[in-house]
Specification:
Helix content: 55-70%
Number of strands: 3
Strand order of the largest sheet: 1-2-3
Structural class: mainly alpha
Number of domains: 3
Shape: elongated
Order of helices and strands: HHEHHHHEEHHHHHHHHHH
Keywords: Hydrolase, Membrane, Transmembrane, Transmembrane helix
Strand content: under 5%
Number of helices: 16
Radius of gyration: 37 Å
Largest sheet: 3 strands, antiparallel
Distance between the termini: 98 Å
Protein name: Peptidoglycan-binding (PGRP) domain of peptidoglycan hydrolases-containing protein
GO molecular function, one term: hydrolase activity
Length: 329
């Protein structure tokens, strides 16, 4: 008996595959793992090696819905038991295999078959067969879908609400955003930063404004938006004006980085030169005093005192002259 289309080699994901993909798309490993956990239920194949699948009869072409006497939307489809859903899939597959596969979500990423072209396959059947053979194909398709749907920015910025809306639709944004945030926290050991955008208010906006050197009023208005976009552009980030994980990381790194010691200005350098000159003069005085060692006590005292006074006077005059020259330069 021929195996169903959703049965293949079921090759597991290679070690380090998630880390490699995260690096390629520029997101945190923990963020990608969170998406896999929530959107793929953390698994690429069922325990029996079959490909996870969910048939959605309301997604069938109208002609086929009429043939199977299907009337109703996603609410009716959601109420189907697993047995009834599988039986209906088998019935439609006999009529039109491509239509049946196109109206089903497949694999860990639960990508609908009608998105096969979007993720690089010529047909829904080709996508299903690739998914059934290899978990890597599923992960690659997941990334392709996120890229085509414009969700990589939300993933990189850990904007879970935007990601959930784009990946799961508008129906349960808060639920999926919460699941993604919780999964990220488990994998990263910390919470995602607060995502800020135009119109937001509060302490996080105040922190943002201070990091940008703005007047901190806690209101994300047009001026803050312009400053954020300018900063993002200067840092090579997408200048969308939304402050997500990557923008926060850049800002906080810049604030925490130790500032290099300021270079001495011209006046400081002149003072240093004057100090060195005074030191050299003092050394010269010491040498001259050594020459008096062979003289008598009285002569030695007189000569050493005279020399010492002269040297110190010269040194002081030099220092004062240099400082005056610096102040009037």
């Amino acid at each position: 008996m021929r195996s169903p289309i959703y049965v293949g080699n079921a090759n597991p994901l290679p070690a380090g595959a998630v880390e490699t993909v995260a690096r390629e798309i520029g997101c945190e490993v923990a963020a990608l793992k969170a998406v896999i956990e929530v959107e793929a239920s953390g698994r690429w194949f069922n325990r029996d090696g079959t490909l996870p699948r969910r048939f959605e009869p309301h997604k069938l072409p109208a002609a086929i819905r009429e043939r199977i006497r299907w009337v109703g939307g996603w609410e009716k489809a959601a109420a189907l038991s697993t047995t009834a859903r599988e039986a209906l899939f088998a019935e439609v597959f006999k009529m039109d295999p491509e239509a049946a596969c196109a109206a089903t979500s497949w694999g860990g990423p639960q990508i609908m078959g009608f998105n096969a072209g979007t993720v690089g396959y010529p047909s829904a059947i080709a996508m299903v067969q690739a998914f059934a053979d290899d978990a890597q194909a599923q992960l690659d398709a997941m990334v392709s879908f996120m890229r085509a749907s414009g969700l990589l920015g939300a993933l990189r910025g850990q904007d879970w609400s935007a990601f959930a809306r784009g990946y799961n639709g508008p129906g349960q944004v808060d639920r999926y955003a919460g699941l993604l945030a919780s999964a990220y926290r488990r994998h990263a050991g910390q919470s995602s930063p607060t995502v800020l955008r135009l119109g937001d208010r509060g302490p996080s906006v105040t922190e943002l404004q201070r990091a940008l050197g703005l007047e901190a009023d806690g209101v994300f208005g047009p001026d803050t938006l312009a400053a954020v976009r300018a900063y993002q552009e200067a840092e090579g980030l997408p200048a969308d004006g939304i402050v997500g994980a990557r923008t926060w990381t850049q800002l906080r790194t810049a604030v925490e980085k130790p500032k290099p010691a300021a270079a001495p200005d011209a006046f400081d350098r002149r003072v240093e030169q004057a100090q060195k000159a005074a030191g050299a003069a003092g050394a010269g005085a010491a040498a001259l005093r050594g020459l008096t060692d062979g003289l008598g006590d009285t002569a030695q005292t007189v000569l050493a005192g005279a020399v010492g006074v002269a040297v110190v006077a010269l040194a002081v005059a030099f220092v004062i002259g240099r400082l005056r020259a610096g102040r009037t330069a």
